[in-house]
Design a protein that fits this description.
This protein is α/β, with parallel strands linked by helices. Among the domains are: 204 residues, Rossmann fold; 266 residues, Dimethylsulfoxide Reductase, domain 2, CATH 3.40.228; 140 residues, Barwin-like endoglucanases (Beta Barrel). The protein contains 23 helices and 34 strands. The strands form ten sheets. Strands 5-4-25-24-23-6-7 form a seven-stranded mixed beta sheet, covered by helices on one side. The protein has a six-stranded mixed beta sheet with strand order 30-32-31-34-29-33. β23, α15 and β24 form a beta-alpha-beta unit. α4 runs parallel beside α16 and α7 runs antiparallel to α10. The protein is globular. The model has no long low-confidence stretch (mean pLDDT 95).
C-alpha cells in the first residue's frame, strides 16, 4: 500500500485582523499587535498578543507580562458594574447599581465640598498613566490634595535628578546602548523598563562590554552582570561617594566638561553666620557668576566666549567666594570616604571599591572616543566633534526607597557628571521632553477658593522656604503634608501618608477619599493591617472617621472592599489612554515620541474608562475647563479630550499629526488625530536632528528644535547643579535666617540632611534594637504591581512566594528549604516559608512583593496559594517611625522628599513549626464578582 503524506496546514491563519496599540502590563508601554479572530457569533475576540516590530520602545520584543495581557481582558476578577456598599466597610458586601445612580451619588458627595471646602476632597491616583489629566481635573475641582504613586515609588530618584541635572533614569533617559562599554546598575529590580534594558544589555554584551550590578539581591539584570556587588541595603550613597573619592584622588574627572557645563566653577560665598553663607554669587539679573580664565574677571556663566575657571577665588565686600569644585574637593578627598573607612558599612571590601573605581576611570578616559559630528553650544562656540565617554549608569527604587535616598541618588548623578558622561556619546542620554532644569518646572500651589479652581498645579519644585505649601498659620495646606518643613522637596506628594493623616485629622479632617488604581488596603500600604483599621474606624457617634470613600479599579482588588462607591474601570484593551509628553513619555534618546491606547475590543460588562468617567463627573460638577459657557460638556469623553484639549495654544496631550495633519509638537487640534495614531500602530515619533542628538542642555540646535516642537517656549540652556542651592536656602532658614522659619524640632534635621553637596547618613531607625537583619521586597519580571497574581498565565510562574534567606542566616537559625520562620520587626510579625539563596547579601532577606493576596479578593479561591502561602512584608512596615517620646508623628520617609522608606526595614528571624498557612490571616472578604472557574478557557475563532 502506497504511503500517503498527510495533508497538514503548515501556515494556518492566526488571526482575521491585527489591531496595534500600546501595552499596559508595566510602565514600559511597549507596542503590541493584538491579533483578533471572529467567533461563531461574529464578534471579534483577542486571539493572542505579540510585540510590534515597528515600535520605537520594544522593536517587537515582548515579555511574559505583555503576552499575558490577553488574560487581563478575560480575568474572572474584572468588575462588572458600579457598586454601592450595603454592608460594613471591608466586608465586600455591595449591590450593583446603574451608572446614573453612581454618578448621582458621587456628584451629591462632591458638589457641596467644591462649593464650601474643596480641600475636603483627597484625590489620589495609583499607577495610572494619565496623571497630567487627573492632576488637571483635581486642579479644576479646587482641592490641593492630589498626587500619584511616585511618593512611595521613586520620587527620590526623579527629584534628585531634576535638581541635579534636569532628569533622571527610567522615563527621563537611557544609556547610549550603541556606544557604552561599561554599564553599572544600582538597585534595579526587574519589573520596570524590562524590554528596553534586556535589549540594551544584549546589545552591549554582544560586543564585549561589561555590566556591573550593585544590589543586595542577585536576580534579573544583576544575574546577567559580569560582576555582582552584594551591597548592604541603604549604603549605596556611601559606596558611590567612595568611588568619587578615588576618582578625584586619581584626577580622573573631566575638568573641561565640568568647567563648561556644570556649576563646578560657580562661586559660593564663605560668610559663616550670615544670610549669604553658602549661596552662589549672582549678577543683578540672577545669573550665576564665574571667573573668566582669559580676563580673570567675573562673568555670567553663559556669556559668549567665557572660559570658566575652576580654580579662581574672588573677594567682594569682605566675603571670599570659592568655586563649587573646591568645596567638593574639601569634602570628598577626606578620609571619611576612603574605601577602608566605608568598606565595613557597605559590606564591600576596600580592594573591590578601588577596583570598580579604577575600571570606571579606565573605560571613561582610556577608551574615550570622538564622533565626527559638528555642533554649537549655548555660548556660540562651535565644536568639530562630540567627545564620548563610554560609561553609563542606571538606577531605580533600590537606592531610592531609603530615608537617605535623595542624597544617595544625588551622589550617583554627581558621579556621572564628574566623569563627563551625561549627554555625551557612550553615556547617559535624556529622552525628550527632558532634560528640563528645575527652575522651569511649576512650583507647588495650594491656594484654595471655594467654588473655583486651585491657583495652579499641585506638584512642582520648590526653590526655597517661600515655595512651601503652608497655610497662613504655618500649618500644612495638604493632607499628605507634602511641601512642608517635614519634607520640603516632595515633588510627587506622599500618597502613603494620606490615609494615616486623614484618620488622625492631622493637619485637618477630610470628607471624601477618592482613589484610582491604588490598592491601599493591601500591597500598596505600609502598615497594611493598620490601614484597614483606619478605613473602617468609627468615631464616638458611630460614623466612619473617613466619611466617604470612592474607588475606581478594573479588578476586584482588596481595596474595593473598603469603598462606599466603586466605579468600575475598563481594561487597557477596552479604553482610550494617552501616553503624553505632558505626563510620562515613552521617547527614545534620538527621538520624540508619544502613544495612545484605543478600544481594540468593546467591554462585555457595564464598565467605563475611568478618565471618561472623570470627564462626566466634571461636567456634572460644572468644573471650569470641562464645561462651556452655556454649561454644556466641552468634551464628550476622554478620547475627545485627548484630541481637543489644549494646555496652552497649540500644545495638547498628543504631539503627532496636529493642525492639518502635518504638524508635530505644535499645532491646532486635528479631529483625525486619533485615527492617524491608530493607522501608525498607536504611536508617533519624530527624530532629533543629528547635530542636536547629544549635549542637549547646551546644544543650540537641540534647544531650537525643542522650541519648535513645543517642549520649551524659548531656549533653556542651563548648568548641571553639582551644588544644589535650594537645599542651602532651607539650611539657612534652619539657621535662623529669613521670614519663614521651620519648627524648632526640625531645625537640626534640616541643617544635617539638606546639604547642597551629596552626603550620606545612617538610616537605621530608633527602635530597631534586637532587629539586626535587613529585609527587602521587589517585584518579579513576570509581574507588575498587583495585577499578575490574578492573571491565569502569570500566577503559574509566581503563585506564592518564599522568604529568601542567605546561607549564613539559614545555617545560624537551623533552617532548610521549606521550613517556616517567624519574621518580626518593631511593628509586627509574619510567619512564612523560607528558601536558601546564596547570591544575596549575607545579612539581608527578601521576597517578591504583591503576590500574597487576601482571601476573597481577585476572584481567587480561598485556598489559592496566593492566599495561603503567599505573604506581604508590608505587615512589618509602618508609615510612622517608632515613637521617640516627644509626642510627634515622625514619618517613615526621606526627610527631604518624603519618599516612603520601604527598604529601611529591619527584622529578626526565628524558626517555628509549620503552620497551616502564612500568618497573619485575615477574615475573607465577600467577593462582588464571586470566584473564578477551576479552569479558564474559551473558544477563539470558528
Amino acid at each position: 500500500m502506497a504511503y500517503r503524506q498527510p495533508v497538514l496546514e503548515t501556515s494556518p491563519e492566526v488571526s482575521d485582523e491585527i489591531r496595534r496599540t500600546t501595552c499596559y502590563m508595566c510602565a514600559c508601554r511597549c507596542g503590541i499587535n493584538v491579533h483578533m479572530k471572529s467567533g461563531p457569533d461574529g464578534k471579534k475576540r483577542v486571539a493572542y498578543i505579540e510585540g510590534n516590530r515597528d515600535h520605537p520602545v520594544n522593536k517587537g520584543v515582548l515579555c511574559a507580562k505583555g503576552s499575558a495581557g490577553i488574560m487581563q481582558v478575560n480575568a474572572p476578577s474584572r468588575l462588572r458594574a458600579p457598586l454601592k456598599r450595603v454592608g460594613p466597610r471591608g466586608s465586600g458586601e455591595f449591590e450593583e447599581i446603574s451608572w446614573d445612580e453612581a454618578m448621582e451619588i458621587a456628584t451629591g458627595w462632591l458638589k457641596p465640598l467644591r462649593e464650601e471646602a474643596p480641600e475636603k476632597l483627597a484625590f489620589f491616583t495609583g499607577r495610572d498613566q494619565s496623571q497630567s489629566f487627573t492632576g488637571w481635573w483635581a486642579q479644576q475641582f479646587g482641592t490641593p490634595n492630589y498626587a500619584a504613586h511616585g511618593g512611595f515609588c521613586s520620587v527620590n530618584m526623579a527629584t534628585a535628578g531634576i535638581y541635579t541635572m534636569g532628569g533622571a533614569f527610567w522615563e527621563f533617559g537611557q544609556p547610549d546602548w550603541d556606544h557604552t562599554k561599561l554599564f553599572l546598575l544600582f538597585g534595579v529590580a526587574e519589573d520596570h523598563d524590562s524590554n528596553p534594558i534586556k535589549m540594551g544589555i544584549g546589545k552591549i554584551k554582544a560586543r564585549g562590554a561589561r555590566v556591573i550590578g550593585v544590589n543586595p539581591v542577585r536576580t534579573g539584570y544583576n544575574a546577567a552582570a559580569d560582576d555582582w556587588i552584594g551591597i548592604t541595603p541603604g549604603t549605596d550613597g556611601l559606596f558611590i561617594l567612595s568611588l568619587v573619592h578615588e576618582l578625584m584622588k586619581a584626577g580622573k574627572i573631566d575638568l573641561d566638561y565640568l568647567a563648561r557645563y556644570t556649576n563646578a566653577p560657580c562661586l559660593v560665598a564663605e560668610a559663616p553666620g550670615s544670610a549669604q553663607h553658602g549661596l552662589l554669587l549672582r549678577d543683578e539679573g540672577g545669573k550665576t557668576l564665574v571667573i573668566d580664565r582669559a580676563s580673570g574677571k567675573l562673568a555670567p556663566f553663559d556669556r559668549p566666549g567665557v572660559r570658566p575657571d575652576l580654580t579662581a577665588t574672588h573677594e567682594q565686600d569682605g566675603v571670599t567666594y570659592r568655586p563649587v569644585l573646591h568645596l567638593m574637593a574639601d569634602r570628598y578627598l577626606s578620609t571619611d570616604y576612603a574605601p577602608e573607612t566605608v568598606a565595613g558599612r557597605c559590606g564591600i571590601p576596600a580592594d573591590k571599591i578601588r577596583a570598580v573605581a579604577a575600571e570606571i576611570a579606565r573605560v571613561a578616559f582610556d577608551e574615550a572616543f570622538e564622533l565626527d559630528r559638528e555642533w554649537t553650544d549655548f555660548r556660540g562656540e562651535t565644536h568639530k566633534t562630540m567627545v564620548g565617554r563610554p560609561v553609563s549608569f542606571h538606577a531605580m527604587r533600590g537606592i531610592s526607597a531609603h530615608a537617605n535616598g535623595f542624597q544617595s541618588c544625588r551622589a550617583l548623578h554627581v558621579l556621572q557628571i564628574l566623569l563627563g558622561t551625561v549627554e555625551v556619546p557612550g553615556g547617559f542620554r535624556f529622552k525628550p521632553p527632558y532634560p528640563k532644569p528645575s527652575h522651569i518646572h511649576p512650583k507647588p500651589h495650594c491656594g484654595v477658593t471655594p467654588g473655583a479652581p486651585l491657583d495652579g498645579p499641585h506638584l512642582g519644585f520648590v526653590h526655597g522656604p517661600e515655595d512651601l505649601a503652608l497655610r497662613d498659620d504655618g500649618s500644612p495646606a495638604r493632607i499628605d503634608k507634602a511641601f512642608t518643613w517635614e519634607n520640603p522637596m516632595s515633588a510627587h506628594g506622599l500618597m502613603h501618608m494620606v490615609i494615616s493623616n486623614a484618620h488622625a485629622g492631622d493637619p485637618y479632617k477630610i470628607d471624601t477619599l477618592f482613589m484610582y488604581m491604588a490598592n491601599m488596603a493591601w500591597n500598596s500600604s505600609m502598615n497594611t493591617k493598620g490601614v484597614m483599621e483606619m478605613l473602617t474606624d468609627t468615631d464616638e457617634s458611630g460614623d466612619y472617621v473617613i466619611p466617604r470613600i470612592i474607588y475606581s479599579d478594573a479588578y476586584s482588588s482588596e481595596m474595593v472592599a473598603y469603598a462606599d462607591l466603586v466605579l468600575p474601570d475598563a481594561t487597557y484593551l477596552e479604553r482610550h489612554d494617552c501616553i503624553s509628553l505632558l505626563d510620562r513619555p515613552i521617547c527614545e534618546a534620538d527621538a520624540m515620541a508619544d502613544a495612545i491606547r484605543w478600544p481594540v475590543i468593546e467591554p462585555d460588562r457595564n464598565v467605563k474608562g475611568f478618565q471618561s468617567v472623570l470627564i462626566d463627573l466634571g461636567v456634572r460638577l460644572a468644573l471650569p475647563g470641562l464645561v462651556s459657557e452655556d454649561g454644556s460638556a466641552r468634551y464628550a469623553d476622554y478620547a475627545d479630550y485627548i484630541v481637543n484639549h489644549e494646555r496652552k495654544p497649540g500644545i495638547g496631550p498628543l504631539a503627532g499629526w496636529r493642525g492639518d495633519g502635518t504638524g508635530a509638537g505644535r499645532g491646532a487640534p486635528n479631529p483625525e488625530q486619533l485615527n492617524r495614531y491608530i493607522d501608525n500602530g498607536g504611536f508617533f515619533e519624530t527624530h532629533i536632528p543629528a547635530e542636536a542628538s547629544y549635549y542637549k542642555p547646551w546644544n543650540a540646535a537641540y534647544q531650537d528644535w525643542a522650541v519648535s516642537m513645543g517642549l520649551f517656549d524659548s531656549p533653556q540652556p542651563y548648568l548641571f547643579q553639582l551644588y544644589v542651592e535650594p537645599l542651602r536656602r532651607f539650611q539657612l532658614a534652619a539657621e535662623g535666617h529669613g521670614e519663614r522659619q521651620p519648627p524648632d524640632h526640625l531645625r537640626e534635621r534640616i541643617k544635617t540632611t539638606m546639604d547642597p553637596l551629596p552626603i550620606w547618613y545612617e538610616t537605621d531607625q530608633q527602635g530597631n534594637e534586637g532587629f539586626p537583619v535587613n529585609a527587602l521586597t521587589q517585584r518579579p519580571m513576570a509581574m507588575y504591581h498587583s495585577w499578575g497574581s490574578q492573571n491565569a498565565w502569570l500566577r503559574q510562574l509566581h503563585g506564592h512566594n518564599p522568604l529568601y534567606m542567605p546561607t549564613r542566616l539559614m545555617r545560624e537559625h537551623g533552617l532548610k528549604d521549606g521550613d517556616w520562620a517567624r519574621v518580626s520587626s518593631p511593628h509586627g510579625e509574619i510567619t512564612v516559608p523560607v528558601m536558601e539563596m546564596a547570591a544575596l547579601n549575607d545579612n539581608t532577606v527578601w521576597t517578591w512583593n504583591a503576590i500574597g493576596k487576601r482571601k476573597g479578593a481577585w476572584a481567587l479561591e480561598e485556598d489559592a496559594p496566593e492566599a495561603t502561602r503567599g505573604f506581604l512584608l508590608n505587615h512589618l512596615i509602618h508609615e510612622l517611625l517608632p515613637p521617640r517620646g516627644d509626642g510627634l508623628r515622625w514619618a517613615n520617609s526621606d526627610p527631604i522628599t518624603g519618599q516612603a522608606a520601604w527598604f529601611d526595614l529591619k527584622v529578626k528571624i526565628e524558626k517555628v513549626a509549620a503552620p497551616t498557612e502564612s500568618q497573619p490571616v485575615f477574615p475573607p472578604i465577600k467577593s462582588p464578582v464571586g470566584t473564578g472557574p477551576k479552569r479558564l478557557r474559551w473558544k477563539v475563532g470558528k
